[in-house]
Amino acid sequence: MGTEQIQSVSFDGKTLHILDQTKLPALKQFLQITTIEHCWQAIKELKVRGAPAIGIAAAYGLFLGVRDVCSSATFDEFDHVFQEKSDYLASSRPTAVNLFWALKRMRARLMAEKGHSIEDLKAKLLQEAHAIKAEDEEVCRSIGLHGLSLLHDGMTILTHCNAGGIATAKYGTALAPVYLAKEHGWNVKVFADETRPLLQGSRLTAWELQEAGIDVTLITDSMAAFVMAKGWVQAVIVGCDRVAANGDVANKIGTYGLALLAKAHQIPFYVAAPMSTIDMETASGAHIPIEERDAREIINGFGVPTAPADVKVFNPAFDVTPNELITAIITEKGIVRQPYQESLIELFKEKSENSMPQYGNSEEGNQHVTA
Ligand SMILES: CSC[C@@H](O)[C@@H](O)C(=O)COP(=O)(O)O
């Protein structure tokens, strides 16, 4: 499986290597990042993108930001720089909660290691960044196994944006069940939405699935209703940037429309998300900050003007899908359904050993029973 070999984010001890996703599919080019400023820019400009990959990159970026602090500094001095650098990285993108989750996790590690020398603290922080990445791979595989319980051989799914291997440490979230279906010998086909304006579906998902030898058909976003009406789609699976405590989900702009279409065609609409994407501190989707991006992405996205230069533009990068449109949320700890307000709380209470991923041909799969 071609994509399994590609590490979109890796660190060799000195340099952070980031697959420049803005260059795909034309070029498989890696950025060599040695400063926190370069890392911030890579996140801001979507060179590294996808919620889990942003979190991993930020963890390494934070290490880059503190690694030159003088070894004779006090803990408080080190912590001051750490906090400043962390706030700086937090300003790169607002919606994917994994960014903030990873920065918080790095801080928790720093606090847990208080008392060690400055050089030891740096080593522990690098260790934590490595752990965040390694765990993400496990988590995505587990999401894939749980998601597989909702699929069957011969099925066609539709996905939006890119929630694949390059958006995570490996496997992806929405695409993890597809990769595992292939490992299992199933023939699962995918419709990839092009995903305007930045074309993550065509540039990244279509490329990644094709590399992996998975049957993928590219459509523009506006064709989703047509293929659903034809009966060609048996499930929609998308990733997400933040799940609110009530189960509302922020994901790439266009996801909400797809959820409405899926409902109209009685097609299950699944969201795949690691626990690190669930934000129990945000009550509902109305409170999720939605990133707005530069107008040029819409009026000059293809390298040539596609609109009058001075036209008014609204360019939100994400939308919010209300929880009532979501059939189930697939996490590494299991699958949850309505009422999300309760089932998500239960999920955080449970130990992961209680929910061994399974797969089969059953629609009911490995579900969490919620009161
Ligand atoms: C596993 S990636 C999940 C989401 O981050 C993904 O679906 C998405 O919307 C990414 O948006 P992007 O703007 O490309 O970072």
UniProtKB/TrEMBL annotation:
Pfam families: IF-2B. Keywords: Amino-acid biosynthesis, Isomerase, Methionine biosynthesis. GO terms for biological process: L-methionine salvage from methylthioadenosine. It comes from the Bacteria. Its EC number is 5.3.1.23. GO terms for molecular function: S-methyl-5-thioribose-1-phosphate isomerase activity. The keyword Ribosomal protein does not apply. It catalyses: 5-(methylsulfanyl)-alpha-D-ribose 1-phosphate = 5-(methylsulfanyl)-D-ribulose 1-phosphate. The record marks C161 as: Transition state stabilizer. Pathway: Amino-acid biosynthesis; L-methionine biosynthesis via salvage pathway; L-methionine from S-methyl-5-thio-alpha-D-ribose 1-phosphate: step 1/6. Substrate binds at R49, G50, A51, R93, Q200, N251, K252. The active site is at D241 (proton donor). Catalyzes the interconversion of methylthioribose-1-phosphate (MTR-1-P) into methylthioribulose-1-phosphate (MTRu-1-P). NCBIfam families: eIF-2B_rel, PRK05720.1, salvage_mtnA. Belongs to the EIF-2B alpha/beta/delta subunits family. MtnA subfamily. This is Methylthioribose-1-phosphate isomerase.
